Amino acid sequence: MTHPKLKTFEALGEYIDLLLDAICVVNPKGEFIYVSAGGERVFGYAPQEMIGHSMYEFMHPDDHERTHQATTEIMQGVVKFDFENRYIRKSGEVATILWSARYSEKDDLRVAVARDVTAQRKVEKERQQLLEKLEKLAMFDPLTELPNRSYFYQRATQALEHHSDIAIVYIDLNHFKEINDKYGHAIGDQILHAAAQRLSTAVRSHDTVARIGGDEFVVLLERIQQQSDAEAIVKKIQHALGKAIQIASIPNIQFDLAASFGIALSKQHGNDLEKLLLHADNAMYKAKRNA
Predict the structure, then answer these.
(1) Are residues 161 and 264 in the same domain?
(2) Pair 55, 147 in one domain
(3) CB 3.0-4.6 Å disulfide test: which of 69, 75, 97, 144 passes with 196?
Protein backbone atom coordinates (compact mmCIF):
# COMPACT_ATOMS: atom_id res chain seq x y z
CA MET A 1 0.00 0.00 0.00
CA THR A 2 1.38 3.40 -1.00
CA HIS A 3 1.87 5.83 1.86
CA PRO A 4 -0.22 9.00 1.28
CA LYS A 5 2.81 11.18 2.08
CA LEU A 6 4.56 9.89 -1.04
CA LYS A 7 2.13 11.84 -3.22
CA THR A 8 3.87 15.02 -2.03
CA PHE A 9 7.29 13.74 -3.13
CA GLU A 10 5.91 12.44 -6.41
CA ALA A 11 4.28 15.79 -7.14
CA LEU A 12 7.65 17.47 -6.67
CA GLY A 13 9.48 14.70 -8.50
CA GLU A 14 10.61 16.69 -11.53
CA TYR A 15 12.25 19.23 -9.22
CA ILE A 16 13.61 16.77 -6.66
CA ASP A 17 15.19 14.72 -9.44
CA LEU A 18 17.35 17.71 -10.36
CA LEU A 19 19.16 17.46 -7.03
CA LEU A 20 22.58 15.82 -6.94
CA ASP A 21 21.75 14.55 -3.45
CA ALA A 22 19.27 11.74 -2.86
CA ILE A 23 16.00 12.23 -1.01
CA CYS A 24 15.05 9.06 0.84
CA VAL A 25 11.97 8.09 2.81
CA VAL A 26 12.17 5.08 5.13
CA ASN A 27 9.33 3.31 6.94
CA PRO A 28 9.48 2.04 10.56
CA LYS A 29 10.86 -1.30 9.33
CA GLY A 30 13.87 0.48 7.86
CA GLU A 31 12.72 -0.11 4.27
CA PHE A 32 13.06 2.47 1.54
CA ILE A 33 9.63 3.52 0.28
CA TYR A 34 10.90 6.44 -1.78
CA VAL A 35 14.28 7.24 -3.31
CA SER A 36 14.74 10.18 -5.67
CA ALA A 37 16.63 9.93 -8.95
CA GLY A 38 19.74 11.22 -7.18
CA GLY A 39 19.88 7.86 -5.41
CA GLU A 40 21.50 6.28 -8.43
CA ARG A 41 24.33 8.84 -8.31
CA VAL A 42 24.74 8.44 -4.56
CA PHE A 43 24.15 4.71 -3.97
CA GLY A 44 24.86 3.23 -7.40
CA TYR A 45 21.42 1.60 -7.60
CA ALA A 46 18.37 2.78 -9.51
CA PRO A 47 15.61 3.94 -7.12
CA GLN A 48 13.35 1.02 -8.08
CA GLU A 49 16.13 -1.39 -7.06
CA MET A 50 16.13 0.06 -3.54
CA ILE A 51 12.46 0.65 -2.87
CA GLY A 52 10.95 -2.13 -0.77
CA HIS A 53 14.35 -3.23 0.54
CA SER A 54 15.90 -2.62 3.95
CA MET A 55 18.56 0.04 4.06
CA TYR A 56 20.82 -2.50 5.79
CA GLU A 57 20.92 -4.59 2.61
CA PHE A 58 22.98 -1.86 0.95
CA MET A 59 24.95 -0.71 3.97
CA HIS A 60 28.51 -1.68 4.88
CA PRO A 61 28.20 -4.38 7.59
CA ASP A 62 30.67 -2.64 9.90
CA ASP A 63 28.34 0.39 10.08
CA HIS A 64 25.12 -1.46 10.97
CA GLU A 65 25.38 -1.06 14.74
CA ARG A 66 26.13 2.65 14.89
CA THR A 67 23.54 3.35 12.18
CA HIS A 68 20.98 1.52 14.30
CA GLN A 69 21.97 3.70 17.28
CA ALA A 70 21.60 6.86 15.17
CA THR A 71 18.23 5.64 13.87
CA THR A 72 17.00 5.11 17.44
CA GLU A 73 17.97 8.69 18.32
CA ILE A 74 16.21 10.03 15.21
CA MET A 75 13.04 8.10 16.12
CA GLN A 76 13.21 9.80 19.53
CA GLY A 77 13.10 13.21 17.88
CA VAL A 78 16.79 14.02 17.45
CA VAL A 79 17.47 15.68 14.10
CA LYS A 80 20.74 14.43 12.56
CA PHE A 81 22.60 16.81 10.28
CA ASP A 82 26.01 15.19 9.96
CA PHE A 83 25.78 11.44 10.36
CA GLU A 84 28.10 9.42 8.12
CA ASN A 85 28.10 5.77 7.17
CA ARG A 86 29.17 3.64 4.24
CA TYR A 87 27.13 1.95 1.56
CA ILE A 88 28.29 -0.68 -0.91
CA ARG A 89 27.41 0.25 -4.46
CA LYS A 90 26.27 -2.17 -7.13
CA SER A 91 29.80 -2.01 -8.57
CA GLY A 92 31.25 -3.12 -5.24
CA GLU A 93 32.73 0.31 -4.53
CA VAL A 94 32.37 1.53 -0.95
CA ALA A 95 30.77 4.98 -0.77
CA THR A 96 30.85 7.34 2.20
CA ILE A 97 27.43 8.92 2.69
CA LEU A 98 26.65 12.07 4.69
CA TRP A 99 23.09 12.11 6.01
CA SER A 100 20.68 14.76 7.24
CA ALA A 101 17.64 13.03 8.69
CA ARG A 102 14.59 13.59 10.83
CA TYR A 103 11.56 11.61 11.95
CA SER A 104 7.98 12.64 11.22
CA GLU A 105 5.86 11.38 14.09
CA LYS A 106 2.70 12.39 12.25
CA ASP A 107 3.54 10.25 9.21
CA ASP A 108 5.63 7.65 11.09
CA LEU A 109 8.40 8.00 8.51
CA ARG A 110 12.03 9.00 8.45
CA VAL A 111 12.96 11.51 5.77
CA ALA A 112 16.61 11.98 4.90
CA VAL A 113 18.93 13.67 2.45
CA ALA A 114 21.95 11.58 1.41
CA ARG A 115 25.08 13.15 -0.04
CA ASP A 116 28.00 11.24 -1.54
CA VAL A 117 31.17 12.54 0.15
CA THR A 118 33.44 9.68 -0.93
CA ALA A 119 35.75 11.84 -3.06
CA GLN A 120 35.83 14.58 -0.42
CA ARG A 121 36.78 12.15 2.36
CA LYS A 122 39.43 10.59 0.12
CA VAL A 123 40.99 14.01 -0.48
CA GLU A 124 40.85 14.79 3.24
CA LYS A 125 42.51 11.46 4.06
CA GLU A 126 45.24 12.05 1.47
CA ARG A 127 45.79 15.56 2.82
CA GLN A 128 46.07 14.21 6.37
CA GLN A 129 48.52 11.54 5.22
CA LEU A 130 50.58 14.21 3.46
CA LEU A 131 50.61 16.40 6.57
CA GLU A 132 51.70 13.43 8.68
CA LYS A 133 54.43 12.65 6.16
CA LEU A 134 55.65 16.26 6.18
CA GLU A 135 55.56 16.31 9.97
CA LYS A 136 57.59 13.12 10.06
CA LEU A 137 60.11 14.59 7.61
CA ALA A 138 60.37 17.67 9.82
CA MET A 139 60.85 15.68 13.02
CA PHE A 140 62.53 12.42 11.99
CA ASP A 141 65.81 11.46 10.37
CA PRO A 142 65.03 9.73 7.05
CA LEU A 143 68.10 7.46 7.16
CA THR A 144 67.72 5.95 10.63
CA GLU A 145 64.00 6.72 11.17
CA LEU A 146 64.95 8.11 14.57
CA PRO A 147 63.77 11.48 15.87
CA ASN A 148 65.98 14.33 14.68
CA ARG A 149 67.48 17.30 16.52
CA SER A 150 64.24 19.34 16.35
CA TYR A 151 62.16 16.54 17.86
CA PHE A 152 64.77 15.93 20.55
CA TYR A 153 64.83 19.61 21.56
CA GLN A 154 61.03 19.61 21.75
CA ARG A 155 60.90 16.52 23.98
CA ALA A 156 63.77 17.62 26.22
CA THR A 157 62.29 21.11 26.64
CA GLN A 158 58.93 19.64 27.62
CA ALA A 159 60.57 17.33 30.15
CA LEU A 160 62.48 20.20 31.75
CA GLU A 161 59.39 22.43 31.81
CA HIS A 162 57.57 19.71 33.74
CA HIS A 163 60.45 19.65 36.24
CA SER A 164 61.35 16.12 35.29
CA ASP A 165 64.72 14.77 36.43
CA ILE A 166 66.48 13.89 33.19
CA ALA A 167 69.82 12.75 31.90
CA ILE A 168 71.24 13.45 28.47
CA VAL A 169 73.61 10.93 26.94
CA TYR A 170 75.78 12.02 24.03
CA ILE A 171 76.97 9.12 21.84
CA ASP A 172 79.60 9.10 19.11
CA LEU A 173 80.50 5.96 17.14
CA ASN A 174 84.25 5.37 17.27
CA HIS A 175 86.17 5.01 13.99
CA PHE A 176 83.01 5.31 11.90
CA LYS A 177 84.75 7.63 9.42
CA GLU A 178 87.24 4.85 8.68
CA ILE A 179 84.37 2.48 7.82
CA ASN A 180 82.87 5.08 5.49
CA ASP A 181 86.20 5.74 3.81
CA LYS A 182 86.99 2.03 3.33
CA TYR A 183 83.58 0.58 2.41
CA GLY A 184 81.67 3.60 1.10
CA HIS A 185 78.72 5.63 2.30
CA ALA A 186 76.11 3.03 1.26
CA ILE A 187 77.60 0.50 3.70
CA GLY A 188 78.08 3.23 6.28
CA ASP A 189 74.41 4.18 6.03
CA GLN A 190 73.34 0.58 6.63
CA ILE A 191 75.56 0.41 9.71
CA LEU A 192 74.10 3.67 11.02
CA HIS A 193 70.59 2.29 10.53
CA ALA A 194 71.49 -0.92 12.37
CA ALA A 195 73.10 1.05 15.20
CA ALA A 196 70.01 3.26 15.48
CA GLN A 197 67.74 0.23 15.85
CA ARG A 198 69.96 -1.18 18.59
CA LEU A 199 69.97 2.11 20.45
CA SER A 200 66.17 2.21 20.32
CA THR A 201 65.78 -1.28 21.76
CA ALA A 202 68.30 -0.67 24.55
CA VAL A 203 66.46 2.23 26.20
CA ARG A 204 63.14 2.32 28.02
CA SER A 205 59.82 3.03 26.29
CA HIS A 206 59.60 6.61 27.64
CA ASP A 207 63.17 7.56 26.65
CA THR A 208 64.02 9.29 23.37
CA VAL A 209 66.86 8.39 21.03
CA ALA A 210 67.70 10.94 18.33
CA ARG A 211 70.26 11.24 15.58
CA ILE A 212 71.67 14.74 15.54
CA GLY A 213 74.11 14.37 12.67
CA GLY A 214 76.72 12.11 11.13
CA ASP A 215 77.56 9.33 13.55
CA GLU A 216 76.36 11.25 16.61
CA PHE A 217 73.31 10.35 18.64
CA VAL A 218 71.77 11.77 21.77
CA VAL A 219 69.48 10.05 24.26
CA LEU A 220 66.99 11.73 26.58
CA LEU A 221 66.55 9.65 29.72
CA GLU A 222 63.60 10.67 31.87
CA ARG A 223 62.91 9.89 35.54
CA ILE A 224 66.61 9.65 36.37
CA GLN A 225 67.37 10.13 40.06
CA GLN A 226 71.13 9.64 40.09
CA GLN A 227 74.19 9.06 37.91
CA SER A 228 74.11 5.30 38.47
CA ASP A 229 70.61 5.10 36.92
CA ALA A 230 71.89 6.66 33.71
CA GLU A 231 75.07 4.57 33.75
CA ALA A 232 73.01 1.36 33.98
CA ILE A 233 71.16 2.29 30.78
CA VAL A 234 74.42 3.28 29.08
CA LYS A 235 75.77 -0.20 29.85
CA LYS A 236 72.75 -1.70 28.09
CA ILE A 237 73.41 0.56 25.10
CA GLN A 238 77.08 -0.46 25.05
CA HIS A 239 76.09 -4.11 25.12
CA ALA A 240 73.59 -3.64 22.27
CA LEU A 241 76.09 -1.74 20.11
CA GLY A 242 78.84 -4.24 20.88
CA LYS A 243 77.17 -7.05 18.96
CA ALA A 244 78.71 -7.53 15.53
CA ILE A 245 76.81 -6.07 12.58
CA GLN A 246 76.63 -7.96 9.31
CA ILE A 247 75.67 -6.40 5.99
CA ALA A 248 73.96 -8.66 3.45
CA SER A 249 76.00 -7.38 0.49
CA ILE A 250 79.31 -8.29 2.22
CA PRO A 251 78.42 -11.32 4.39
CA ASN A 252 82.04 -12.32 5.00
CA ILE A 253 82.75 -9.15 7.02
CA GLN A 254 81.57 -8.34 10.53
CA PHE A 255 81.55 -4.79 11.86
CA ASP A 256 82.28 -4.44 15.56
CA LEU A 257 81.10 -1.07 16.79
CA ALA A 258 82.31 0.83 19.80
CA ALA A 259 81.11 4.21 21.01
CA SER A 260 82.08 7.02 23.34
CA PHE A 261 79.51 8.31 25.82
CA GLY A 262 79.02 11.51 27.77
CA ILE A 263 76.37 11.97 30.47
CA ALA A 264 74.80 15.12 31.92
CA LEU A 265 72.16 15.15 34.67
CA SER A 266 69.71 17.95 35.32
CA LYS A 267 70.03 17.31 39.06
CA GLN A 268 73.77 18.00 38.91
CA HIS A 269 74.19 20.33 35.95
CA GLY A 270 71.00 22.42 35.96
CA ASN A 271 67.90 22.77 33.79
CA ASP A 272 69.39 24.74 30.90
CA LEU A 273 69.14 22.43 27.91
CA GLU A 274 72.03 23.97 25.97
CA LYS A 275 74.32 23.70 28.98
CA LEU A 276 73.28 20.09 29.55
CA LEU A 277 74.04 19.24 25.93
CA LEU A 278 77.39 21.02 26.13
CA HIS A 279 78.32 19.18 29.32
CA ALA A 280 77.35 15.80 27.81
CA ASP A 281 79.24 16.65 24.60
CA ASN A 282 82.38 17.61 26.51
CA ALA A 283 82.17 14.45 28.61
CA MET A 284 81.80 12.38 25.45
CA TYR A 285 84.88 13.93 23.80
CA LYS A 286 86.87 13.42 26.99
CA ALA A 287 85.90 9.73 26.93
CA LYS A 288 86.78 9.55 23.22
CA ARG A 289 90.27 10.95 23.84
CA ASN A 290 90.83 8.43 26.61
CA ALA A 291 89.56 5.49 24.54
Answers:
(1) yes
(2) no
(3) 144
